[in-house]
Here is the input.
Amino acid sequence: MSIVVFDSGLGGVTVLHKALQVLPYEQYIYFADDGHVPYGTKTKEEVRSCILASMEATITDETRALVVACNTATSIAIGDLRKRYGFPVIGMEPAVKPAVELSRSTGRRVLVLATALTLREAKYHDLVNRLGDSGRIDSLPMPGLVTLAEELVFTGPRVQAYLDETLGGYDWTKYGTIVLGCTHFQFFRTALAAFLPPHVELIDGSAGTVRRLQELIGSGEAVADSPGSIEFRHSGSDAGYPDKMRHALDWYRRDRSGQTHD
Here is the structure.
């Protein structure tokens, strides 16, 4: 029985990394819809069609759970997927609630970074409105980070130039928290931490998503006597894309452990 982790491209690797930490003995299928990445610049109808087609080709009777490791895909298709499949379907949601709770204690603002499509969706606006603090929440699309991540460019001059261009004009004394509302953005935690003043915290939804997965399928102890595995699949024509997924996972694993990169 396999857990399918789905994303438009490499971003969901960051969620897979967290799942491997918490549930290391499971069998994972990571599916990247790289043939249609990026989702954030497409219409809602185009994205929904891509997601449903990708899952139709991936889901089998051996699927134990589906993790939609993409905020944009969650906002558009999570309802359709839950109606279609009888096993647990777990989505991503920008971690606005914990960010707002932090902001209430500090008095500073929250900046949500996500794709343009996520920020346009009613699901995001409903989330913000439910919290009752919409006046202290700002939003910013950063599609360039998706492009850089898909090119495996996580640090260096191009990343620095893009951060300067998009974030350089903010008065950071007014902000206390940044929400990484796209899984691709998590690759840039180190770069963002170096760019921002120390008081600005970075928050994402990966831990909450994996915690929910664990609640729904159990701790994984029943399969602890067998090794876990990862199978990489994708929709595009680039035969080298599975190697990119493996490289991205290895890079992120080392980055989060504080190891240096070659």
About this structure: The chain has two domains: 2-92+206-257, 96-203.
